[in-house]
Write a structure and sequence with these properties.
The chain has 329 residues and is an alpha/beta fold. Strands 2-3-6-7-8-9 form a six-stranded mixed sheet.
Length: 329
Amino acid sequence: MRDHECRLKTGITRTPEFERKRLACFAVNCGLKCGHDCLYCSSGAVLRTHLAFRQLGENPFSHGYAIVDPTTPERVARDAARIRERGLIQLCTLTDAWAPEGQQHNIGRRCLDGILAQPGWSVRILTKNASVREDFDLIEQHRDRVLLGLSLTATPENSAVNKVLEPNASDIKERMLTMVEAAARGLRVYGMLCPLLPGVADAPEQIGQLVNFVADCRAEEVFVEPVNPRGPGLKQCQEALELWGYTREAEAIGGIRHRHGWSQYCLELIRNVQARVRRHFDIEKLRFLLYPAHLLPEHEAEIRKDDGGVVWLGKEQSLTAAAQRQEPK
């Protein structure tokens, strides 16, 4: 990995989009490119116009490098003390504070220290790295103010396939063991099953296994999201899987690179997730995050017949809701 350092300007920022997702009101990010190097990552599409990519000679959609700001915790601590209106912060929304480059600079723990030193803040940790367990001692001191989630994107039997797609993230088994340890220590945990890729983690029995696992960990909520089709991520996933000989999985991902395939995948994923969550949770604990822009009209209509647990997002949702309010009864 090529590790770059880049000075950013922000510490704690408001995040209306993540508030709509019911994840957090505030966000922290510690860089522009995460060293976990997940092939499906859509952050490049969000951050692609940042000048740092051009200055560092890197393509925002390429792989093999990370961009981190080791000074992030200093700004986070400053903002945590300065901001008067306080609430739930997600650490992080676009990058991972416990990725390899984050560990090098102890960014996750330093950010937690800066935030939790101030009253009124709470933190939602989201990571794909089991190294977060090294900070359980700090989290235990503030156990009521911290929610912990490790992204579970495959079942253990598919960990080898998943390693192709998430080359530098912790193995799925390690993430699950970390969740188990957190629950055993009485820490607050939530489920993050995102993304559940076709051919990798979207079969009913795989979804059932993951939902059952987070239920056993006493997860307070379970978030699920289909893979974001934006950018070249799906193409890169398909090509990598083909290269490593995972033909069936590659074909499944290739099948959702067009709108009809993605929309059908999304409809089936919602129905399978709803069925499994209803077995283990109150459906009110499900947060299926859904942007309807890529859905076919007939699939959107079908989902709306039973959208228990679905969090509708994006401009399209507000326009649709407004149109429905104007329809004659």
